[in-house]
Amino acid sequence: xxxxxxxxxxxxxxxxxxxxxxxxxxxxxxxxxxxxxxxxxxxxxxxxxxxxxxxxxxxxxxxxxx
Length: 66
Description:
This protein is α+β, with helices and mostly antiparallel strands. Helices cover 42% and strands 15% of the residues. It has a three-stranded antiparallel beta sheet, with no helix packed on it.
């Protein structure tokens, strides 16, 4: 997301901390925020239903418009 889509890592601020559970999130060019670190932990806990490639595809869609 960061390398291919122009997103950027950013620190989680005050009110966001309990929501994300991790100190870093990815902010997309659209302003949308996602938590790939949390998603990886969900994948480890819940198994294949937490599909990582699908997660990337969903968040990458707006970047791929030409």
